[in-house]
Amino acid sequence: MARNERRLRLDQPVDTRRVRRPDYDPETFGRFAETFARFMGTARFIGYMTVVIAVWIVWNVPWGPDRARWDEYPFIFLTLVLSLQASYAAPLILLAQNRQEARDRVTREQDRDANNRAQANMEFLAREVASLRHGLGEVATRDYLRSELRALLADLDQRVERPSQAPSEVPDPD
After folding, report:
1. What span, in angstroms and rounded, lies between the C-alpha atoms of 132 and 129?
2. How far apart are CA 85 and CA 112, in angstroms?
3. What is the rounded distance in angstroms from the CA atom of residue 72 to the CA atom of residue 69?
4. Which residue among 11, 25, 48, 158 is least packed, with the fewest CB closer than 10 Å?
5. Is the pTM of this model over 0.70?
6. Are 84 and 95 in contact (CB under 8 A)?
7. Do the beta carbons of residue 47 and residue 38 sit within 8 Å?
8. Three-state secondary-structure class, residue 103
9. Considering only CA atoms, which of 41, 99, 53 is closest in space to residue 79?
10. E runs forming strands in the chain
11. What whole-number distance in Å separates Cα of residue 72 and Cα of residue 5?
12. What would the pLDDT profile of 15-66 be if each residue is shown by its tens digit?
């Protein structure tokens, strides 16, 4: 109903130039372009093109059948076909490169984010290790405790050997 009301309104211009364009999925076309560009960059494609061109030339030179020749010596039609192939190949290759560049950009951003997180984690861990070192500096170590226990044991041994000494006469270890 809103669509009919829009058509009946006289205060708005009517769009008379509606162009119906074919609907296509750009991702499907992009994948096709990448696949084609990847194929064109292989030795197999070069081999196929070499065979096609060699057969074309051999067929159309004076050694080939007279009636079946369709492109005489300057090979104008072969030049046209190769130019047409190049005119389609170049944009497909550029499209594939643009898609690859977009993927690389996303990968770089993800790597940059991961590196930033890793750096923040490393800085946090470095601060934690520094605080642990600082805290351990105030903690008695095993060697220190052993030396203190040995000193106390020696002091007790001395007390056992001299029972006549009064506890007030015992020297203070500090």
Report:
1. 5
2. 40
3. 7
4. 11
5. no
6. no
7. no
8. helix
9. 53
10. none
11. 66
12. 777 777 777 788 888 898 899 889 988 999 999 999 999 988 888 887 766 7
The type of residue at 20 is R
DSSP per-residue codes, 130-159:
HHHHHHHHTSPPHHHHHHHHHHHHHHHHHH
Q: Position 81: which residue type?
A: V
Token pair for residue 145? 């405790």
Reported as a single tens digit per residue, the pLDDT across 92-143 is 999 999 999 999 999 999 999 999 999 999 999 999 999 988 887 777 778 8
Report how far residue 51's alpha carbon sits from residue 47's, in angstroms, rounded to the nearest whole number. 6
- Residues 167, 169: Cα–Cα separation, whole Å: 5
User: What is the DSSP secondary structure assignment for residue 171, as one 8-state letter?
Assistant: P
Distance of CA 154 to the CA centre of its chain: 68
Q: Return all residues near 65 (Cβ < 8 A) that are at least 6 apart.
A: 59
Find the length of the chain.
174
Place of tokens 């499907």: 28
